[in-house]
Amino acid sequence: MRFLRELKPAVYSVAPNLGAALTMAAGLMLLASGATPSEPGRFIRLMQITPVLLIEVSHFLSSVIGLALVLLAFGVRARLDAAWAATMVSLLVAAPLALLKGFVWEETAALSLLALLLAPLHGAFTRQARLSRMEITPGWLVSSVAVLLGAGLIGLWSFQHADYADQPWWRVMVDDDAARAIRAWAGAAVALFAFGVWRLAATAAPPRVVGEADPDYAKVRAILAQAEEAEPGSNLALLGDKRFLFSSSGESFLMFGVRGRAWIAMGAPVGRRDERLELLWRFRELADAHAARPAMYNIAADDLPDIVELGFTIQKVGESAAVPLETFSIEGRRRGNLRRAWRKAGEDGCSFEVLRGASVEAAMAELAAISEEWLSHHAGGEKSFTMGGFKPAYVAEFPVAVARFEGRIVAFATLWTTATLGAFSMDLMRYAEDAPKNIMDFLFVELLEWGRAEGYTAFEFGMAPLAGLDDRPLAPMMSRVGRLLFERGEEIYNFQGVRRYKEKYDPTWQPRYIAAPNRWAIPLALADVGLMSSGGMAGLARRPKRPEEAAALPDAA
Question: Which of 457, 482, 458 is nearest to 472 (CA)?
Fold first, then answer.
C-alpha cells in the first residue's frame, strides 16, 4: 500500500497526457469504424434480432461520439475535470452502441477498458473549468477537420475496393452499409462545423476567482500606504477594474485583469518582498485551475528572477523613463528651451499647486470639464487597466498637481505616490484647449521641484512602448517586429515622438517586460492588454469628436 501511495503522484502526472492519447485513439477508432463496412456475418445475425432503425441510429451516434472524443482529448490533456467527466460518459455510451451498430465486441471491450482505466484517475484532472473554456485554436480545428477527412477517405477507399461480385445479396447489404457510413461521416462533419463556429463566435464569461472575495478598497489602501515593495503604477489597484490575490498575511496583493480566457497581472506583487514569489505561484496555479492563459505585464528587471522561477518566457516591450531628482536641473545649454518655456509661463501669470483631499473634491467640476474637453480632441476615449481614467472617485484618491492661469485651472496631472518615497509618477495629464503654450512643460518642471522638496528620489515619466528593442539577425522575432514598428509605425502610434519628448529630461531608461508561459502566448497577451486598456474594439475604433461636436460641449466654448 505504501508503494501505491508513493506511486500515485507519478501516475497522476502522466495521466493527462496518456489519457488524452488513448481518448484520441478511441475517437479515431470510432470514426474509422463508422467509415468502413460492417463484418457481414455479424451484421446478418444482428439484423435478425435488432430493428433497423436502432442500427442506423447507433451507427450515426457512434461516429458523432468518435468526433466528440477527438475534441475531448485536448481537454483531457489540459486536465479539465469537465473533460474527464464528459469522456467517461462518452465512453460508457459508445461501448454498448458498438454492439448495436454491428456487434463489434472488440470496440466495446476497448472502450470499456479505457473507461475503467480513467475512472480512478479523477484526481489528476484538477482544473475546475467548463468545457467552453477549452483552449481551441485555428490549428486545432484544422487538425480535427483533417481527422474527419481522413475517416471519410478511409470509407471511400473501403467501399470502392470491396469485392462482392460473388455474393450479390451482400452487395445490397453493403450498399446500405455505405449509405450508413456516409450519413455518419456527414453527421460528424456537421457537428464539427457547428462546434467550430460556436467556439469562434462565443465569448466565455469571465471566471470567478474561487476562494478570493473581491476586497473593499480600505484593505488595498492599507497595503499601498505601507508597502515596502511598490512602484507608482501600483496605485492602479484603486481604479476599480481589477481582481486581487492577497497573501496569507494580508499585507501583500497581486492585481490582475480578466478578458475571456486571458488573466493579465498588472505589474509585480505589492507589499512585502518575502511574499512576492508565493503570490506569483498562486496566480499561476489559480489561472491553471480555471483553464486561463496567465501573463504578466509591465515587469521590471528586478522582477525577472521570480518570473523565471515560474517557468515563464519573457519579452521586452519597451523602456520606462525615470528622472533622478537629485541631479535634475533646468540650467545649462541643453535645457535652454525647457527653461525658457517654464520662465515664460511663469511671467505670463501661470502658477503651480498640489491639491489634496477636500481641495481635490472642491475642484472636481473644473477638472472634469478640462478632462472632457481634452478627450474630445483625442482618439480612443478613456483608458483602463494599464492607465487610469477620469472617474471622480479614482481621481480623489490622489494628490492632483494643477497649473492655474488667471486664477483658473488650465492643466492638471494626478500623482501616483509611494510609501517609501522612492519614486513618484503621474497618471492622468490633461489641459484645456485655451491653456498657454508649453503649459505642460511648466507643470512638469514645477512637479519635479515639488517631488524633490517632498523627499522623493526619482520621477517616473512612464513607458516608451517598443523603445530599446534590437533588430539583430539573432534577436527574437518579437524584438525585430517591435523594432520595425517603432521605426515605421508612426501612423499607428507616436512611438519615437514619445521617447524624444521624455528624452529631453535626461531620464534613466529602464527595460520593461511581458511574461507568459510560452513565447507563442506573448502576442495574444499583448493583444489582450491593448484591448483591456482601450475598452475593447469599440475603444480602439473611437475617433476624436469633430470640431462642431466639440464646440457643443458645455465648457468648450
Answer: 482
Which residues contact residue 482 at a Cβ distance below 8 angstroms, ignoring those fewer than 6 apart?
316, 317, 466, 469
Question: Over the stretch 82-94, which tens digit does the pLDDT of each residue have?
Answer: 889 999 999 999 8
pLDDT digits (tens, 9 = 90+) for 133-185: 555 555 556 666 666 666 665 565 555 555 433 443 334 344 555 566 656 66
Q: How far is 180 from 182, CA to CA, in rounded Å?
A: 5
**Residue 275 in contact with residue 249, Cβ under 8 Å?**
yes
3-state secondary structure of 436: coil
Cell of 435: 491653456
Residues 6+ apart with CB under 8 A from 308: 314
What local confidence, expressed as pLDDT, does residue 306 receive? 92
Neighbours of 384 (CB within 10 A): 20
**How wide is the angle at C-alpha 79 spanned by C-alphas 75 and 83, nearest 5°?**
40
Does residue 251 contact residue 271 with C-beta atoms inside 8 Å? Answer: yes
- Report the C-alpha gap between 465 and 286 in whole angstroms: 30
Instruction: Name the percent of the chain in helix, strand, coil, to the closest 5.
Output: 55, 15, 30
